[in-house]
Amino acid sequence: MSYSRFEDALAKAVAERRIAGAVALVTDRDGALYEHAHGARTAGQDVAMDAGTLFWIASMTKALVSVGALKLVEAGKLTLDEDLARLIPEFADLQVLDGVDADGKPKVRPARSPITLRRLLSHTSGFAYGFTSPDLLAWATATGAADPSSGSRAAHKQPLVFDPGQDYIYGIGIDWAGVVIEAASGQRLDAYLAEHVTGPLGMADTGFKLSPDQAARAASVHVRGPEGVMPIPFGLPPEPEVLPGGGGLYSTAGDYGRFLRMLMGSGPQLLSEATLRELATLQTAPGVGGFKSALPGMSHDYDPYPGMPTGYGLATLITPDPTGDGRRGGSLTWAGLANTYYWADPVDGRGGVLMTQLLPFADPEVLELFKALERDAYGV
Length: 380
Hints:
Layout: H1 4-15, E1 21-28, E2 31-39, E3 55-56, H2 61-74, E4 95-100, E5 106-110, H3 117-121, H4 134-143, H5 153-156, H6 173-185, H7 189-201, H8 212-216, E6 222-225, E7 228-231, E8 250-251, H9 253-263, H10 273-279, E9 311-312, E10 317-319, E11 331-336, E12 340-345, E13 350-355, H11 364-378
Antiparallel strand pairs: 1-2, 1-13, 3-8, 4-5, 6-7, 9-10, 10-11, 11-12, 12-13
């Protein structure tokens, strides 16, 4: 299988200083078929990208945390549809944004339905991000509320943008799912994932904190400037009250490939076949899954498959139809804020990862690189 189209496109993007570098991996159920690194970990420095490079994978964290939560469902410690207020006191009196008052200030009212694990995992709980909801962004601006990225638990108790179960919006539901995991398991989220998810899969380079060795292998986050990409200061809160289950992990392409093989039913199996089927079943109305960005400096608008009836399952976006670039219908996919992307195709038994570190999200050129990787992987 030739990956010349992808490699040529990546080399061109690096040479033109459109990105600093990237690592790509394609795997089948038996192991990695292809891995390629090109460029630098930090623009302007001589340390090259390689298979050992660590990336902040941001929202690619969500699938791992979701699998961790589903393991607790299988263990009988959680159910998908119970009212989680029994475990999470903040869920007992949640408010919903309900327009603005005469002075232009956001109004709220009590939520009319409960928060459940199914709703958290499928982004139908009503929890949003400021960058996906202008209404929530306006509320935060009007109230001076702290952002959940601060790591404060109090900052995570924000108003919902609709009643739980009534709509879809991409948001902090999986951060709350991490808090639910801690309440149900009695373990801190990092320890729980290490014991029940990343450890069994052999994902030794995946975690919320970097060791000195890992920090030395980490890629910098970049933005584009007048002279090309340039690194920017970046760091997550070192000791957050709430570990960011929606976006706090670092990992490598190889580690994430191990997780994709599990999603495709191979290697160490963390979930039963029945739970894997449920994970890959649409939990939302068809035709949702992307978002309009309220903060263009953080993310572009993201609709990876316009016209396809995509929707969210219990861990990932589901593409029910063939993509036209190789993937079969029923494939699983999502991404991370700094332009990291993956797919897992359970029908064909093939998955892929593309890791960069560039803001804002949904960069058109990186998306084209991801598409080129998929096309070469399938020989399309």
